[in-house]
C-alpha cells in the first residue's frame, strides 16, 4: 500500500475550523462544543478542588488512567474513519494480553511472547477485515461474532482464571516510569502521533477518509475500497493488541474480560471527537479530546466522591450530547 | 397420493407415540425410584469464574461416582439463556436440582418451575439469607467474614477509631453487597470514617481491578496520606486497591475476600495486601451432597433450609498453608 505523504486538512485538522470565514456563533459553538466541554469540566473540577485537580500528581494520574483507553480508542478511530466500527477491540485487547501472559508463564521470552500476542491481534483484525470487506458482512455482525469468539478464546487461554506472576521486565512496560511519568503515557502518545500522521499525511489515510466519506465515489475514483477497509481493521486489531498487552503489564495480570469497558469508552471517545471537525468525521485529535473528557470526568467525579452509578449515567448523557451535537452539525451544513 | 398421505400420517403418529413414551419418565417429589438412575439437574451462572469452574468439575465427578444421571447447565452469567435451559430440563423430569453460586434473586422462574414439579433445590452460596426457594442453601457467614477482616485491620492499625477506611463493594453480587454493608456499619460503629462518605461501588466485576485501582488512586491523590485502610468485598478488586496504595507510596492496608492465589501471594509478599478470607467451598459442597444423598435414600429433606458456615482469615501467618480458591481440586 502506498504511504506517500499528503496533507488531508479538511477531514483531520480541527485547527481549520478557526480559519473558516463567516461562521455564526451557533455554528462555532457546535463545532467547538466538545473542546468547550473539556475546558468547562477542567474549570469545574479545579474550582471544586483547586488544591488537587491540576496538581502534577493528579494530571499524571489522569494520563495514566486514560493511556490504554487512548490506544484502543485510536484503533476504534481508524475503523470509524472508514465508516465502520469494531465491537471486538476490547475483546481483542484482552485476548492479546492473556496470550502474552500465558506464553510468558509458560517460559517464553518476553519479546517473543509480545510478538505472538501482537500477531494474534493482527490476525483478529485481519479476520474482521476479510469478513467485512470481502465477504460483505456488516461490521456490526462480523465484529459482534468476533467479539463472542475472541472472548471465548480468552477464557480458554486463561482457563477462566487470572494469570499473574508475570516477569518483572514485562510489568515494567505498564508500571515503569520515565521522568516520573508512567511509560504507558509515552506509548499512548507515540501511537496517537503515528495514527495522526498516517491519517493526515499519507495516501493511506486519504483513502481511508475517502472510503468513509463515500464508498462508491471512492471506488469510482480508483481507491481499492476493499483493501482500505481490510487494512483499517487489521491495523485496528494490532493497535488493540498493544493496548491489551499494556493493560496486562499495568495490572501485572491477565483475565479474559479485564478490558471490557474500553469498548464503550472507545466508541464514546470517537463520537465525542467527531464533533470537533467540520466534516464530522472520526479523527485522532478529536478522539484524544474525547478520551480526555472521559478521563477528566471519571477522575474529577472520583475526587468529589460521586457514586460510580452516577458516573455511568453522566457518561451516557455526554455521549448522547456528543451525538446530538454531531447530528445538529450535519443538519446545519 | 392418498397412500403417501396415509403412510406419512402413520409415521407421524408412530413418532409421536415414541416421543410420548420417552418423555413419560422421571418426575419429582420423591427420593428416586429403585432401578432408575437418580436424575439431577445442576446449574451455575458462574462457570467462568475459577470457583464456579471448580464447582462444575466437582459436581460432575461426584455424580459419576454416585451413578447419577446428571444434566449440567452452565449459564455464563446469562440468565436469559440459562433459566429457560434449566426450566426445559425440569420439564423433562428430575429428582433433584443443584444450584451453584447463582443468587436466588436471579432464578425466580426456575424456582417456580421446580416447585410446580415438586423437585427440591439444593444450593451452594445462592443467597445470603434463608429462603423457601431451597431445600438447603449453604453459604459462608458474611458477618464472620466482616469480623475477621475488620479484626485484621483493627490489629494492624492499632484500633479503628478515628481511622479513615474505604469500603469497596459491588451491589449486583448478593454476598458482596451484604458484607460491604455490614463492614460499613461496623466501621461506623467502631468510630472509623468511611472514605468518600459511603461505600464505593464497582460497576462491573470484569473491570473490578481497574475500577478499584482508579478509586483508590484518585482518593489518595486528593487526600495524600488520608487513607488508613481499604476493605474490599473480593480479592480481584482488592488487588487493584493494593496496587494503587503501593504506587502512591501510602501506608494503607488492604483486605479482600476469596483467598485467590494472587491475593495470597500479595499477602506473603508483605506489601499493602494485609489479609483475605478463605471460604470452605469443598466442605460446603460435601455437606450439600450429603443432604442430597439423604434425600435420594428415603426422601428426607434437611431440617433447616439455610446454613452459614465459618470462614478462615488468611494473613501472613497462615498464607502458606491455605489452598487458593482458584486451585481447588
UniProtKB/TrEMBL annotation, chain A:
GO molecular function annotation: transmembrane transporter activity
Subcellular location: Cell membrane
Membrane topology: Multi-pass membrane protein
InterPro entries (UniProt xref): ABC_transp_permease
One GO term describing the cellular component: plasma membrane
Top-level taxon in the UniProt lineage: Bacteria
Protein keywords: Cell membrane, Membrane, Transmembrane, Transmembrane helix
Residues spanning the membrane: 28-50, 62-81, 112-134, 140-166, 178-199, 230-251, 263-296, 308-328
The keyword Transmembrane helix is assigned to this record: yes
PANTHER family per record: ABC TRANSPORTER PERMEASE PROTEIN YPHD-RELATED-RELATED, RIBOSE IMPORT PERMEASE PROTEIN RBSC
Protein name: Ribose transport system permease protein
Record organism: Agreia bicolorata
TrEMBL record, chain B:
Signal peptide limits: 1-28
Gene Ontology CC annotations of this record: cell envelope
Subcellular localization(s) per the UniProt record: Cell envelope
UniProt key word Signal: yes
SUPFAM superfamilies listed in its UniProt record: Periplasmic binding protein-like I
Keywords tagged on the record: Signal
Pfam families, per database record: Peripla_BP_4
Domain Periplasmic binding protein residue range list: 54-295
Gene3D superfamilies: 3.40.50.2300
Name by which UniProt lists this protein: Ribose transport system substrate-binding protein
Gene source species: Agreia bicolorata
